[in-house]
Each structure stands twice: as C-alpha cells, then as structure tokens.
Design brief:
Number of domains: 1
Number of helices: 1
CATH architecture: Sandwich
Largest sheet: 8 strands, antiparallel
Shape: globular
Order of helices and strands: EEEEEEEEEEEEEEEH
Helix content: under 10%
Oligomer: single chain
CATH class: Mainly Beta
Number of strands: 15
Distance between the termini: 19 Å
CATH superfamily: Exo-inulinase, domain 1
Structural class: mainly beta
Length: about 230
C-alpha cells in the first residue's frame, strides 16, 4: 500500500502549471490512490475507475463509511485559483464537493458543492471545514436541477487573504460569492469529497481540474501530505 511508505520522500510535488485528471490513464477497477497524484482518507470509503461509454469516470463505494475524501497530491499546494469537478449523483441526501486550501497540520479547508434534497432539486453551499472535520456553512442556497443520470460541474474559486474571496460556480454559472475574514486560510491542498445522510447513493465523478491564478505551486513530500489525514483523525 502506498500509505505504508510515507517515511520515504516518494513524491516531490512541484507542478509548474495547471492540473487535470480525467481518469483515462487508469485501468478499470483501479483506485486513483494507487497513483502518486492522489491520497485517500484512510478511514472513509473509496472510488474506483469504471468505464462509462467511451469515457472513464470514478464511482463511489461506501462499504463502511458515509464519506469519501481524496487529496490531490498532483496539484500540490496552491492559493489563488480554482478547483472543479464533474459529478453525477443519484440519491437523496448525498453531498458532492470540491475543497481547497486544506491546511497540512490542522485539516482546515474551504469547500464548495451541492447536496441532493429531493432529486432533481438541490442546494448549493460554500463552507469551512474545522479542525474536527465539521462543516460550517458560509453560504447555503438553491442549486441547479440535477436529475438522476445528469452531470453537474462544481467549481470553487479562492482569491486573496485577509479576507479570502470564495466564489462557487455550478455548470459555469455563479451560484454564490462570500468573503471570509475570520479563518483566512492560506496556501493549501485541494481535492474532492462525497458524503451521504440517508442511504448510500450512486455517485460518479470525472474531470478533476485545478487552474492557478497567479500563485505558483510549492514543493511537498508525499509523507507530509499523507500525514495530514493521519493528524486530523
């Protein structure tokens, strides 16, 4: 297992540009965590690559947990820019989101996503993840219509510090914008998370993308990134 090798500096993350993973380079049934681009939260569920027509996506599995979270080591540490992903959820009470500026020591982060209420109706949200892993909502409002089998693109933009401007877009349209003057999270990691409250949903995801503007990325070791999830348990 990759997580068992954290004592070695296996991965130096220094990407000089944007990042995109469309999951086409994996074999069907593979967990992206087997690559050096991703680190899976060890006490949650997981995703596996699955064909969907001529495309490859990841599918969520919740064998013994109501949440799934992946850090994107391949995108490195960054501050200003956007993180986005396409989601296709089916199941009331399911949450899909992307997060950014996750702090390596505390696990704090900003998050943006949508929650299925009575499908196809959704709510969109921007939030702050605390050191305990709880969500504090900074915005909560009506989201786009997402019938079962449909896809929704979720994008979270972060700009500045003191305050931080957080902008949520769904399907390319601005859903909300808030400013955070309380937490002022700086440079951190990005990734995606999937959760549910009622019963295990069917969730597909694709096209995780980070676009930088204008901050360059910062080096990190694989061991340091893995230590983040271990510290916040």
């Amino acid at each position: 297992m990759k997580l068992g090798l954290c004592i070695l500096p296996l991965l130096a993350v220094l990407v000089r540009g944007d990042f995109l993973d469309d999951f086409e380079s994996y074999s069907p049934g593979q967990d992206p965590d087997t690559s050096f681009d991703w680190v899976r939260e060890p006490f949650g569920g997981h995703v596996l690559v699955t064909p969907q027509g001529d495309n490859q996506v990841v599918q969520a599995f919740f064998p013994d947990s109501a949440h799934i979270a992946y850090l994107c080591a391949g995108a490195g540490f960054w501050e200003n820019g956007s993180v986005s992903m396409d989601f296709s959820p089916a199941g009331n009470g399911s949450f899909v989101n992307v997060f950014s500026r996750m702090q390596i020591i505390t696990g704090e982060a900003y998050v943006g996503g949508v929650v299925m209420t009575l499908q196809p109706f959704t709510f969109s949200y921007i939030g702050y993840i605390s050191v305990t892993g709880d969500y504090e909502l900074l915005h909560y409002g009506y989201g786009p219509s997402v019938p079962p089998g449909a896809w929704v693109n979720v994008e979270l933009q972060t700009e500045g510090t003191g305050p931080v401007t957080l902008t949520l877009l769904t399907n390319g349209q601005q859903a909300a914008q808030v400013t955070d003057s309380q937490y002022n999270l700086g440079m951190g990691l990005s990734g995606f998370a999937l959760l549910y409250e009622i019963e295990a949903p069917t969730i597909f995801a694709d096209n995780f993308q980070v676009i930088l503007s204008p901050q360059s990325l910062t080096p990190a070791t694989f061991g340091a990134i893995k230590a983040l999830f271990m510290e916040i348990q």
